[in-house]
Design a protein that fits this description.
alpha+beta; 6-stranded mixed β-sheet; 3-stranded mixed β-sheet; 18 strands; RNA_pol_III_Rpc5
């Protein structure tokens, strides 16, 4: 309040809005003029405008008699532009640069907040501006000088080669036919700089008549800057509430919102994408990625998205192939479009791509020649179809790019059944269109399990093995009883030789045999690690005949040594998994099938020169006990032994370490400065199986 009392109102001025020159008034901003040029009535020689572009060109005279004007320079410029000849096309008829051309450009894209004001008799009259144009010198006369110079050179060269004109009469002409332009190519061409320049050049100039400052017409037009009526009815725009007036003075900026694309095309902005409806988000993602598991789609849509709504929307733009979602053909090839390679319409392209998708529902492999023979499309189109959803393998064909998503198939059997019905309808249409034979409809014998891919997951193998065991349980039980009887007879006959047999016993209460039940499908038909055809050993409770102990130890040591030479750091869980895979690759009756306990495996790891690294994992970790036991090969005999030992010492103190700490510690201990790439190489070589 004190500030308001110190700054009293001196005068109140009435403000009026003049509307007579609305959308007709422009503000011209002239450059700083040289001393030889004056902006008066005489200097404006001509003017012209391009209304659509709001582009103005003015031609103004230069005072050649001014002492600041360099006459020799003006004569030289005129000579370069027009040459020695003077005719109607000459730019400077006086053989002297006596005029200058100015061309306009828009100073601001939004001029709605600018107005021209006239103050008269205590009244302020405002007229909104329709445009603000900045006038800059135009140097097109230099281009004209270069063009005339090239014409003179061409004329001089043409006189020397006149004798060859008869030979140049016959020339070979190459005829080329342009491909049909797609909608995307047309949009790119329309938005190109070359097209916009050509379009601007095609607009014709409209001549203008310039009226000087003191001309009667100028005096008449100047009266329109004043409001014609001072009544309230014609000035309702200025009768606003304080909040409305403030909004008019500082309107919210909407330029950024208008300039944002409605939907990202080539580069997706996730922030802009998540402002769209869910159906549009899924359509844009599927159109760009083309093949995606359902879990990845949920991850891209962000947390909190309803999976049921996503399932409902994704079925509108994609089809289920091997448990993964593949974008529909009509989304990639909309109606009234054509192939950029062959010009084939979108309908034919959709049929061909549907055939490729249907083939991948039957098999993991597709041969391009077979697809081209059925669809009768050009190789480029067929290659595009295959690249959308598969990867080329040398001497094999095209393999579907993603593994079979059995988790989704198990969780959503209703969706899978509905998609199978859709594929049955698509297959019926393809049979009619392409006249498919039986060899096209049925998969090959060696890949008969069309419902499962060639790359079978570990859980699938376990389930298959369990089913097989249940089917053969009766036969296996009989064989086991028979083997047990034979073994008892062998034990009774060999009682006299007991002192000569060396038996290694392990306490059952301390260590249990290693669990291999999760890998039954990998043991070549084994039951609990025992092959039905093997009856010479008794692996029960870890008891082995003496002749087998040394062979088992040798085989186990060879496996552990070769494994740690490939992967220097392993958890016990990972080592057991690799050991089960190794068992699956061995022939029936191998000595390692006699049963290996966890304690035997860990003792052998320590005997081969490995050390257990006591990593201080957090107490609330969800890892299993086997995953918390970490073993590492201390000396491998390579150049990274010292670096690896330093890293193991670091991780024995903390389970999570920053990269810069590792880099500093390696530099101090090893006595050499390692850059980021070298540190990454050491980490990759040492901990490729864990990190």
């Amino acid at each position: 309040m004190a500030n308001e009392e110190d700054d009293p109102i001196i005068q109140e001025i009435d403000v009026f809005l003049a509307r007579s020159l609305l959308e007709k008034l422009y503000l011209f901003q002239y450059p700083i003029r040289p001393a030889s040029m004056t902006y008066d009535d005489v200097t404006h020689l001509s003017a012209k405008i391009k209304p659509k572009q709001q582009k103005v060109e003015l031609e103004m005279a230069i005072d050649t008699l001014n002492p600041n004007y360099c006459r020799s320079k003006g004569e030289q410029i005129a000579l370069n532009v027009d040459g020695t000849c003077t005719d109607e096309t000459s730019t400077y008829s006086s053989k002297l640069m006596d005029k200058q051309t100015f061309c306009s450009s828009q100073a601001a894209s939004n001029v709605s907040r600018y107005a021209a004001a006239v103050y008269k008799k205590g009244e302020l009259h405002l007229t909104p501006l329709h445009g603000i144009l900045q006038l800059r010198p135009s140097f097109t006369y230099l281009d004209k000088a270069d063009a005339k110079h090239r014409e003179r050179e061409a004329a001089n060269e043409g006189g020397d080669s006149s004798q060859d004109e008869a030979e140049d009469d016959v020339k070979q002409i190459t005829v080329r036919f342009s491909r049909p332009e797609t909608e995307q190519a047309r949009q790119r061409r329309v938005q190109s700089y070359e097209f916009l320049q050509k379009r601007q050049a095609e607009e014709h100039w409209v001549p203008l008549h310039y009226y000087g400052l003191k001309d009667s017409r100028s005096e008449h037009e100047r009266q329109y800057l004043f409001s014609q009526g001072h009544g309230l009815a014609e000035n309702t725009e200025l009768i606003k509430s304080p909040s409305e007036y403030l909004m008019m003075l500082m309107p919210p900026s909407v330029e950024e919102e208008n300039e944002k694309p409605m939907a990202p095309s080539n580069v997706l902005s996730m922030a802009q994408l998540r402002t769209l409806p869910l159906a549009d988000q899924i359509k844009i993602l599927m159109k760009n990625v083309k093949v995606m598991p359902f879990s990845n789609l949920l991850g891209l849509l962000g947390s909190g998205t309803d999976p049921t709504a996503v399932l409902r929307c994704v079925q509108q733009v994609a089809l289920l192939v091997q448990g993964n979602w593949v974008v529909k053909s009509d989304v990639l090839y909309p109606k009234d479009t054509s192939s950029p390679h062959s010009g084939v319409p979108a309908e034919v392209l959709c049929r061909g791509r549907d055939f490729v998708m249907w083939k991948f529902t039957q098999d993991r492999w597709v041969v391009r020649k077979e697809v081209a023979a059925v669809t009768k499309l050009c190789p480029e189109d067929v290659k595009d179809f295959l690249e959308h959803m598969s990867v080329a393998r040398i001497n094999k064909g095209w393999e579907f790019m993603l593994p079979y998503d059995e988790d989704f198939v198990k969780k959503h059997p209703d969706i899978v059944q509905r998609q199978q019905m859709l594929w049955m309808g698509i297959q019926a249409k393809l049979e009619k269109v392409y006249n498919l034979l039986k060899e096209h409809l049925t998969p090959k014998k060696q890949e008969a399990q069309s419902a499962h891919p060639l790359l079978v997951s570990g859980e699938q193998r376990v389930n298959m093995a369990k089913a097989k065991v249940k089917q053969n349980y009766g036969q296996l039980e009989k064989e086991f009883q028979k083997q047990k009887a034979e073994m008892k007879s062998n034990e009774s006959s060999a009682k006299t030789d007991v002192p000569n047999i060396r038996i290694k016993e392990e306490p059952v209460s301390v260590e249990e045999p290693m669990d291999t039940s999760a890998h039954e499908g990998l043991n070549n038909g084994l039951v609990n690690g025992l092959h039905p055809a093997q009856g010479s050993t008794d692996p029960v409770n870890g008891h082995l005949p003496g002749g087998c102990i040394d062979r088992v130890a040798q085989e186990l040591k060879a496996f552990v040594s070769s494994t740690f030479k490939k992967q220097f750091v392993l958890t016990l869980s990972e080592l057991k998994r690799l050991f089960n895979l190794h068992l699956a690759s061995l022939p029936p009756g191998h000595t390692l099938f006699s049963g290996i306990s966890d304690k035997m495996l860990q003792d052998m790891v320590l005997d081969t020169g490995c050390k257990q690294i006591l990593v201080p994992f957090p107490p609330q970790t969800a890892a299993s006990p086997d995953e918390l036991k970490v073993y590492a090969l201390w000396e491998a005999g390579d150049t990274y032994d010292q670096h690896r030992q330093v890293l193991l010492e670091i991780f024995s103190k903390n389970y999570r370490v920053r990269r810069n700490v590792i880099q500093n510690q390696l530099s101090q201990e090893c006595g050499e400065d390692l850059n980021k790439q070298e540190v990454d190489r050491v980490l990759k070589v040492s901990f490729c199986s864990l990190w």
